[in-house]
Design goal:
Layout lengths: L8 H9 L5 H13 L1 H23 L4 H14 L12 H33 L1 E5 L5 E4 L5 E4 L4 E5 L7 E6 L1 E5 L8 E5 L2 E5 L3 E6 L3 E8 L2 E5 L2 E5 L3 E6 L5 E5 L7 H4 L1 E8 H12 L2 E4 L8 E7 L3 H12 L3 E4 L2 E4 L1
Helix pairs in contact: 1-2, 1-5, 2-3, 3-5
């Protein structure tokens, strides 16, 4: 059965917050909480307002005691035609004054609380991978895998008509389908737009590259728009406004996720390019005639030394190291 609201409960709760409630009053409060679930919710709301009000009071630079003294001085200076006797004992009057103060600040406290919640939903979170790859789940359930030295920024909740994120570096996206809310990735002056698909986005000093594994992706830059499908890629060059669409010739964009290099007639220059990037190496080909020699093998989580050993044996090359530079001859 739902109980009626206790008209004295606010006074009891204030005394409890001030640690001035007697044992009998504490028992009365506990019984009131047990009477109805609504009472428990009322108490939680009251406690939240009280806590928030105390926080605001700590943040305030006003001298409350000085303000109270000034108020008393002003009222004492006014002519008093009628002497009014207090209706309550002095301790109760002080408690009621505290209740009034809480109620006066409650509105501000509650408004600040609501504004804090609202602003937090728009606050951008930034996740950085550092020197290791990192997988993160976005608020909509989409999954992103960041390559090393990459970062992504996104809101705590995707509100509005789109799901917008910002990317620096390289990442693979597996986007949760939602036709009513397109997924947008901003990377420099390029925008990648999808609904539900998986694809890789890579940005460096020379170009922005998007490679699709599943679904359809739109790549936009200024007035240009390119739509790409599985095993297609869009490349936007930094030095010009040119946007190109090509068929992907290898799967090296997957290396930082799979740790596997699948070479199927891959020219040596292309493998060297990937090795330099993946291992932060400085490998150069010392003879022009070697650049297009094909390689047909799979390197699965191999060390750089092991890969170069296989390349050397397969193509009958010499591997020389001069300081930090590795030369293939």
């Amino acid at each position: 059965m739902k109980t009626e609201h206790n008209p004295n409960i606010d006074e009891l709760l204030v005394k409890s917050m001030l640690d001035e409630a007697s044992v009998a009053e504490q028992i009365e409060i506990k019984q009131w909480l047990l009477d109805d679930d609504d009472n428990q919710r009322y108490f939680e709301h009251f406690e939240l307002i009280w806590t928030e009000s105390k926080r605001l009071a700590r943040m305030s630079t006003a001298d409350e005691n000085a303000a109270w003294e000034r108020f008393k001085a002003r009222t004492a200076a006014q002519p008093q035609e009628v002497k009014v006797m207090p209706m309550y004992p002095r301790p109760v009057f002080r408690i009621l004054r505290m209740v009034a103060m809480v109620l006066m600040t409650a509105g501000v406290g509650w408004l600040s609380y609501l504004l804090a919640i609202r602003s937090s939903s728009h606050e951008m979170l930034t996740v950085s991978s550092g020197m290791q790859t990192l997988t993160d789940t976005l608020p909509d359930g989409s999954v992103v895998t960041l390559n090393r030295k990459s970062s992504i920024s996104y809101p705590q909740n995707f509100e509005g008509k789109t799901r917008q994120v910002q990317l620096t570096g390289e990442a693979f996206f597996d986007v949760k389908p939602d036709k009513s809310k397109p997924f947008l990735i901003a990377v420099n002056d390029v925008t990648v737009k999808v609904v539900g698909t998986s694809f890789n986005v890579k940005d460096n000093a020379e170009r922005t590259e998007v490679i699709v594994e599943t679904g359809i992706v739109e790549v936009l830059r200024d007035t240009q728009r390119v739509r790409i499908t599985p095993r297609e890629e869009a490349t936007v060059l930094k030095v010009s406004s040119q946007m190109r669409k090509n068929v992907t010739v290898d799967e090296f964009h997957n290396y930082y996720r799979t740790r596997r290099l699948f070479c199927d007639g891959t020219p040596l220059w292309r493998l060297v390019e990937i090795l330099n990037e993946a291992y932060e190496a400085d490998i150069v080909i010392g003879n022009e005639r070697l650049k297009n020699l094909p390689i047909n093998t799979t390197f699965d989580q191999n060390s750089l030394e092991s890969i170069l050993g296989v390349v050397s044996e397969t193509l009958s090359l010499k591997v020389e190291q001069h300081g930090h530079q590795i030369i293939l001859k």
